[in-house]
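To illustrate the input format used throughout this study, we show a single complete record. The first block contains the structure-token representation of the backbone; no residue identities are included at this stage. The design step must infer an amino acid for every position from geometry alone.
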């Protein structure tokens, strides 16, 4: 069995003040690893190490930072099997998802390496004889808090771009996926990252998370997770005037108009709803379909869901692996029951064995049901009937979330107009709600969060502007 330690100031350390936690394997509920958890003392050491490394790291040449990130990417590529094993083992990522995530992580390292030389400022000449220089400078210590569902990618989107911009970092991975954090540490260590620039402190949200947010040495908190925890973090960080980015929950809608090919729509919707068992913030959990093709779509999506193969994360042909834990299945059961009591139709699914939940399609969902508004974070999607495109838009926007969305139509004029009126940070025309890459502006509006992640947009978040003037000609003063 694996034993995973804390990574602080360039050293792998055993816990002193924390506990040793058994990391669960969701596929069979065996113990995947024993993990040293951080307590107050380790968080203190990690913050101090990051703080002390700050000056050195921000003065390290961009080309050196670039080289380290590229070497970390190479290590991950050379060890992709180990990376995927961790994802299958501790997060229940089916093989296809595990390798997809590992490949994406390698790409993030390389995209971040590419940003190192592109942290540019601006020069302005607004007044004669005066030059303004706008520097884009690193913030100092960034604390990152990551979720369990894409544990390497969602942590790395913070870590890689923050250190590319010259910040140092302390990462708290989700308690369910601490080894994924250790993989990032191993890659950076192999890349030759100097001690203290990256530190890993697995531990509970309440103790480790709180200390990271509230400590004076932390300049910014970069968080991905649920809207409730995101709100808590904002409430703690705002009075301390800290910067934060919050990538939060979603109830991502797909609008399907009647001119679009139904078979293609089923494939797009099915992938968007069921990839990684629906445990993705941008999962397509509300499908709003124009009346004329509603019945045909419901039937075909049901047939698609019935064909998906449920199984252990390790099996070659598994489409639907286990949910992270059984508590999530109980939550989904209740949500489905609430919808059925209020008149929804269960087309398929609605049951689970242990933490394996069947892909589920609910039809005739309306906005008096909990499932219309609340995340399921499981393989459950709701189909909703709309009389026309305008009504579909109204249903789409009737939600507190605004993360991803999709719009399926061949009418490009309508697509352009509707996409601008859909209340979401991201709209995919004729694509799936689940879509991401290393350089785009990923993020949401409304209760889905604050800030954007990816490429230059991450660099923007992880830097602070400083205005410096130079008076190069004598100038008049008023008195
Ligand atoms: P979560 O329960 O909010 O946990 C996320 C992280 O926050 C974990 O590391 C957790 O630690 C930590 N945490 C919990 N309470 C905390 C506190 N009081 N202070 C500081 N940190 C705290 O979310 P999750 O269940 O891991 O992930 C699922 C959620 O994330 C869904 O809502 C999903 O939509 C959202 N998500 C959003 C995006 C996006 O990009 N917008 C992407 C993926 C997921 P512990 O594990 O120790 O509790
Ligand atoms: Mg686990």
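Output of the design step:
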């Amino acid at each position: 069995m694996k034993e995973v330690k804390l990574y602080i100031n360039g050293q792998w350390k055993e816990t002193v003040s924390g506990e040793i936690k058994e990391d669960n394997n969701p596929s069979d509920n065996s113990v995947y690893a024993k993990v040293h958890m951080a307590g107050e003392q380790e968080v203190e050491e990690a913050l101090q190490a990051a703080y002390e490394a700050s000056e050195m790291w921000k003065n390290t040449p961009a080309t050196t930072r670039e080289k380290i990130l590229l070497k970390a990417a190479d290590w991950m590529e050379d060890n992709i099997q180990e990376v995927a094993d961790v994802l299958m083992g501790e997060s229940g990522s089916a093989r296809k998802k595990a390798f997809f995530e590992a490949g994406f992580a390698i790409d993030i390292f390389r995209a971040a390496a590419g940003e190192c030389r592109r942290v540019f400022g601006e020069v302005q000449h607004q007044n004669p004889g005066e030059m303004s220089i706008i520097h884009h400078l690193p913030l100092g210590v960034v604390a990152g808090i990551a979720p369990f569902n894409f544990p390497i990618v969602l942590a790395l989107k913070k870590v890689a771009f923050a250190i590319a911009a010259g910040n140092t970092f302390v990462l708290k991975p989700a308690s369910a996926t601490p080894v994924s954090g250790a993989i990032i540490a191993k890659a950076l260590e192999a890349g030759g990252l100097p001690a203290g620039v990256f530190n890993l402190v697995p531990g509970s949200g309440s103790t480790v998370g709180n200390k990271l947010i509230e400590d004076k040495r932390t300049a910014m908190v970069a968080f991905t997770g649920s809207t409730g925890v995101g709100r808590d973090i904002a409430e703690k960080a705002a009075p301390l005037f800290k910067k934060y980015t919050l990538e939060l929950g979603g109830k991502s809608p797909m609008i399907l108009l009647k001119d679009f090919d139904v078979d293609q729509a089923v494939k797009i919707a099915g992938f968007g709803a069921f990839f990684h068992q629906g445990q993705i913030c941008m999962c397509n959990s509300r499908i709003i379909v124009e009346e004329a093709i509603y019945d045909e779509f419901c039937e075909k999506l049901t047939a698609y869901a019935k064909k998906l193969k449920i199984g252990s994360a390790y099996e070659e042909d598994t489409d639907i692996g286990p949910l992270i834990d059984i508590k999530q299945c109980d939550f989904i059961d209740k949500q489905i029951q609430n919808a059925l009591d209020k008149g929804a139709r269960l087309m398929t699914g609605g049951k689970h064995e242990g933490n394996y939940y069947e892909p589920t399609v609910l039809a005739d969902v309306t906005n008096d049901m909990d499932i219309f508004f609340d995340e399921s974070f499981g393989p459950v999607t709701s189909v909703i009937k709309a009389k026309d495109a305008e009504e579909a838009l109204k249903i789409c926007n009737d939600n507190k979330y605004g993360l991803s969305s999709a719009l399926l139509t061949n009418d490009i004029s309508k697509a352009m107009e509707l996409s601008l009126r859909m209340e979401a940070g991201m709209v995919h025309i004729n694509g799936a709600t689940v879509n991401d890459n290393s350089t785009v502006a990923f993020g949401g509006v409304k209760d889905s969060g604050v800030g954007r992640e990816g490429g230059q947009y991450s660099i923007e978040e992880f830097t602070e502007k400083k205005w410096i003037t130079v008076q190069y000609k004598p100038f008049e003063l008023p008195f």
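Structural context for interpreting the output: Residues 2-248+448-467 form a domain with the Aldehyde Dehydrogenase; Chain A, domain 1 fold (CATH 3.40.605.10). The mean pLDDT is 98.
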